Amino acid sequence: MRFPRLLAAAGALTLLVAPACGAEKPDPATKVEVFTWWADGDEKAGLDALVGRFTAGCPGHEFENGAVAGGAGVNAKQVLAARIQRNDPPDTFQVHAGAELDDYIAAGRVQDLTADYAGWGLRQALPPGLVEDLTVNGKIYSVPADIHRANVVWSNPELLAGAGITRPPATLGALMADLAALKRSGVEEPLALGRDWTQLMLLEAVLISDLGAEGFAGLFNGATDWGGSAVTGALEDYAALLAYSNADRDSRDWPDARRLLTDGKAAYLVMGDWAAADGLGHFTFPGNGRVFQWLADSFVLPTGAPNPAGTRCWLRTVASADGQRAFNRAKGSIPARTDVGGEGFSAYQVGAMADWRSGTPVPSCAHGSACTQDWQNAVNAALGVFSTATEKDLAGLQQALAATAARYIRG
Length: 411
Ligand code: GAL
What we know:
By secondary structure, this protein is of the alpha/beta class. The chain has two domains: 31-148 and 296-351, D-Maltodextrin-Binding Protein, domain 2 (3-Layer(aba) Sandwich); 152-287 and 372-408, Periplasmic binding protein-like II (D-Maltodextrin-Binding Protein, domain 2, 3-Layer(aba) Sandwich), CATH 3.40.190. It is 44% helix and 12% strand. It is built from 16 helices and 14 strands. The chain has helices at residues 41-57, 76-85, 102-106, 114-120, 122-125, 128-134, 157-162, 172-184, 196-218, 229-242, 254-262, 308-319, 321-331, 347-358, 373-388, 394-408, and strands at residues 31-35, 62-65, 92-96, 135-136, 139-140, 142-144, 148-149, 152-155, 191-192, 268-270, 281-284, 291-295, 297-300, 360-362. Strands 2-1-3-13-6 form a five-stranded mixed sheet, with helices on one face. It has a four-stranded mixed sheet with strand order 9-10-8-11. It has a three-stranded mixed sheet with strand order 7-12-14, sandwiched between helices. Helix 1 links the parallel strand 1 (31-35) and strand 2. The chain is globular, with a radius of gyration of 21 Å. The site of beta-D-galactopyranose (GAL) has 13 residues, from loops.
């Protein structure tokens, strides 16, 4: 069981992003505004599938799309924070299961759903470890829709063949050797990379390889020293990988980074399994062994939600086996429920279901299961500074990461 941290002061909110609304304006009395960052591609397809189940199962309630585009919620989270500050919450919003919820819970911004869990039989339907991660002071505040895996490498098979690479690299060293071979074969920037949070995903994968599952998990509960030599080594590896990536990384969201792969400009991309696409190869990040770095999208009932009955029907849809089947088939993730079989899912997803059952789970900071939003923002900022600097200051980066952890780890 985790305990909520104190609410950190809300940062300055400068970004203005217009929510993407559906063509028709639903009746304010019956609408359920669902706030996500799923505005395009498979993310939108997943949301649409869920909306289909909601519309069929919740007569008298109407879905209103409150999506704000931007991978991993980079824009949505700022818009949401501003709305919550001015007591204008949507009926429900997307938030990662785990530490990312802590501040909302501590500030009383989300309602206790423990009794609903019992009514919906949800506690038994979810893996016990996930229920434990969702439980804060004995209560549960969100309904998970999915499980995604973060530590996956996607590849362009033609470019690999052109460089004479015939099998996935088994170690970090082998990955570096592949990247060097790709460069020799004429692929200038063989590792596709995007902005801040995608850089954090790469760093986390390297840390899992260099520190192991336990050492990695310890980075977020105080058991592993961010200032230690193991982290120094991992940062050196991270810097070496960064040197193989596209120079314009800081301006790319994840779909633009994946485009480098599908356009044949880069051969490897470290990205969660929302990035699955026909024609791309995939393997677990080298050296991660059987570690399944997980994250889960979940939905909440905010305090002051205008239509709590409608929201409860949305949450019940998200919680249902039917809803999870429809949503995850389209989105590329796997159901959080353990009682949804693999029929109708892709070969990748069926493999992910087996890996999730048998692998070693570790959480993700880039996607909120390991660290709070403020902690993640601070790490992303440090990585952004490192990415743009011409002189790479590894010691400075390590100091910034260690100081951030010291600020946010509480006993
Ligand atoms: C994650 C989210 C995924 C996917 C991804 C890219 O944070 O959990 O569902 O949407 O961002 O936008």
